Amino acid sequence: MATAVVDQADKRQSPLSDAVVVRFAGDSGDGMQLTGGQFTLSSALAGNDFATFPDFPAEIRAPQGTLFGVSAFQINFGSSAIDTAGDAPDVLVAMNPAALKTNVPQLKQGGLIIADEGEFNDRNLAKAKYDANPLDDGSLAKWQLLKLNISQLTMDAVKPFGLGNKEALRCKNMWTLGLALWMFDRDRQPLIDWLNAKFAKAPDLAAANVAALNAGHAYGETAELAGPLKQHHVDPAPVAPGLYRTLTGAEGIALGLVAGAQLAKLPMFFGGYPITPASAILHHLSRLKEYDVTTFQAEDEIAAICSAIGASYAGSLGVTSSSGPGIALKGEAMGLAIMTELPLVIVNSQRGGPSTGLPTKTEQSDLYQAVYGRNGDAPMPVVAARSPGDAFECAIEAVRIAVQYMTPVMLLTDGYIANAAEPWAVPDLTTYEAFPVEFLTEAPEGGFKPYGRDENLKRPWVKPGTPGLLHRIGGIEKELDTGHINYAPENHQAMTDIRKDKIDGIKVPDQVVELGAEGGKLAVVGWGSTFGPIHQAVRRKRAEGLDVSHVHIRHIWPLPANLGELLKSYDKVMVPEMNTGQLKTVLRDQYLVDAKPVNKVSGQPFTIAEIEAAIEEALK
Amino acid sequence: MNEMTTIARTTTLKDWETDQEVRWCPGCGDYAILKAVQRTMPEIGTAPENTVFISGIGCSSRFPYYMETYGFHTIHGRAPAFATGLKLANPNLDVWIVTGDGDGLSIGGNHTMHLIRRNLDCQIMLFNNEIYGLTKGQYSPTSRVGTTSPSTPYGSVDRPAQPAAFALGAGARFVARGFDVSKELPNVLKAAHAHKGAAFIEIFQNCIVYNKDVFEDFAAPKGAEDRQLWLKQGEPMIYAKGTKGIALDAEALHLKTVDVIDGDWQAAGVIIHDVTNRSVAHMLVEMRFGEFPMALGVLYDDPRPTFEADVVRQNKAAAEGKTADLQSLLKKGQTWTVTEGGPEL
User: Fold this and answer.
1) Cross-strand pairs, B254
2) Cis peptide before A354 (omega within 30 of 0)
3) Across the strands, what pairs with A523?
4) Full-model pTM
5) CB pair distance less than 8 Å for B330 and A255
6) Among B93, B315, B324, whose Cβ lies nearest the Cβ of A465?
């Protein structure tokens, strides 16, 4: 979903005629993520809009050929705005029986299966728990089947380069990619350039991979007339002119945090601990030292956030990042950051829960944890990203709130956004308003008050090392103004009220309607990565003439000031979420609106069709 | 090494006292430690504004409120993690961690270990009173076997941790011991401060309410010279007014006590304290009191490059020759331009 795609929303007739969904599926070791990534780039260069969905197992090297070891990459590309990675694939590339078995049920009826029959041997069939070879027994009759011995064809193509069997077979994914490039009328040269650069130190490997790519492409050309293989050209999408790149959510967060720190004129300190799917943010940031970024891989999740708070105390922008189980461990330290009123950004890349849950699958089930999940009355702002590009903007917003209000801020993203890629119009940083931090360096008139406040109820930020402003902070209740320890009943009441009022008073932009109108029969209210399917479903239903609008909330806490009135302007409010109804509860609580939940917790994103069905049901 | 600015200033004890009422129990050993620290700071010659005391939770962790410096009373067991972020963000600060046997070895044992192995430049004062004071007297990870407490009415059964041995095992480059009312404590603190890197100091502290006089066996003034071995760099390990000493049983590879006749410690085989001898340090921290005197003072001191200096150096090297142009970073990797005529590389 390109942020700059010209919205042709309601003009659209047949929603899928100009878009194609391809799913590459194979064994964990087959290089499907790489194949998908390169095909994505080729789609970008062809001018298509696209969205991707990498779907891979939690196991690092699952036993070969097993059902749980299947790794898949889905891409939806088209000549108009693409909002999701697509409901049902049009084309399934299955590199082995397990990949076929786990992915073919989702394939559109009449869709094309391209299967590597070289891998459909007795051993692999048994591992995939097939009694008979599905390529031969007619069980795939409702789809078009193209069986090729990709393994053998690849071996033949790379023979001149003298690779070992194992290395030769590793070129299979390039052969497959070559065929896919031919199918969609794509230029091979950028891929050839990329292979030559990637294997610059091993020219034989480069040449073999290029040969495999070319062979796959040539196979398409020569086989076209004989079978179900047809070449299909997808026109470029009408995209606004500008400079584009592909962006994953993890990249969006990392770049946004760096941009936010620069806009605040602060060095950044990132304390992290490895956890799926959040680690990618640590990896990206650890390579950006020249941007005044210090990264610290701590001994655990608690140390990660505590070190970030320590850095904020020293005058840096402290940032920590994790996923649900790690966020749970950080809870006590978040309370301390709230009590000591220090800026901090906590990124939560949500995954399926509870407990270890589904580490590599997506979910939105940490909203309660973000808004409410601490001991005591511990209010904290929460910002949620809807897409990789939006993650960049949300990271800047989280930094802004953190430093302008001296508060920890939770930034929510999820496994889907973290790994998915989309084309991104590179923003012009000079258009962003800076919000430079001013540290207190000398006592103001009337004396220094560590817990004195400005009009936003923000307390001053003083760096240790500053003469004349020595003071002590901590987690015990603070006295008004002085910050000394104070257990008095009226003081605790007053401080609790101030902490609440400060967060309630954070200025967030008014809620806009993404698609449709203010007021009407039905509002579909979403947050986070459900943006794509909701947007596309509302677009389609509006094209059919239904009175439905899409509202998508970025500021989960505090909520936009106009949201209550906006929601009350619709007859019905529906909240699709990848949880059992968490935003729904918050909206009901805040506005007494009869928000109806639509829930999915399968570890997979909503399909457009599911949201469409819910809209139809609501408007019956 | 990164550029270290040493901010020196002449101060007096008064400059290090806050206006806050000290709230430990009357007679608590913490008072003596507080005074020893406040007395030591002017001698060290650093500036209060450049000094940060960081603590966790427990009686000992109230310490920062009473020091006229910057101070951060954090959460239970995590002070080393806050200190790590603080010091990485500003390596010029003089950081002191105040912790206890429960805070630093039970709930926060993990962080203590990692801070020590990373060798962050700071002083870690672990007040060991062998009991949980603030929660009203439960046994702690350093309590002796058989300690009766509200949570162990029939006596504790688990074997205690040995703080100095723990620290050395974690890779500490400085390990020292002292006790609350000892006149030697300021000297131990000064040595710890002079050591660049993580300096671990176990300070035996008398909890007069829940574990009164548990260290009297070696800390009582009367007969102290027979039960305390104050280690001094380059000097023989003798005690009991020079009548006893520590020697090495080279065959069994352990230390032993020997009688020194007429002051001839050489003849008795008494060894000379070398603070850089890690093997002997391992034996000293394991030396069982009773059979041996209590080893006090600087047991081990052999600096290595500090964590924050290495991080700063690596960050600098990684940034060298690169410009921090974020706009060009956003454009990094494969990009394409969309014009009216369509996309191109």
Assistant:
1) B249
2) yes
3) A549, A573
4) 0.92
5) yes
6) B93
